[in-house]
Amino acid sequence: MATFGERLKNIREKHGWSQTELAARSGVPYETIYRTERGTHHEPRISVAVKLARALGVSLDVLAGLYEDDDAEAFPTAMTLVGD
């Protein structure tokens, strides 16, 4: 099973975004994204994970690894779950 950081990187790259762009869109510091994707920061706080999921347009469940990214369309997005 992929790590949180690996899932984050995979979804970010599917959007064609750099880590800097995800940082700008999510409000999460670039350094946090960089360390998470590299595996030196294993599990971010829930508030950080929610910001990342919202920016990426996926359910927090997908980002957390409860569902495969391929199943993402079957679940509501983070924006639907937590609002705008």
Descriptive terms for the model:
mainly alpha, disordered C terminus, 6 helices, 434 Repressor (Amino-terminal Domain), 84 residues
- DSSP helix fraction: 55-70%
In the CATH hierarchy, what is the class? Mainly Alpha
Number of domains: 1
From the structure provided, what is the oligomeric state, counting identical versus distinct chains?
single chain
Quickly describe the structure.
With 84 residues, this protein is mainly alpha-helical. The protein has helices spanning 4-15, 19-26, 30-38, 46-56, 60-64, 78-82.
List the helices and strands and how they pair.
Elements: H1 4-15, H2 19-26, H3 30-38, H4 46-56, H5 60-64, H6 78-82
Helix pairs in contact: 1-3, 2-4
Structure, explained:
The protein contains six helices and no strands. The chain has one domain: 434 Repressor (Amino-terminal Domain) (Orthogonal Bundle), CATH 1.10.260.40. Helix content is 60%, strand content 0%. The protein is globular. Mean pLDDT is 84; it is low at 71-82.
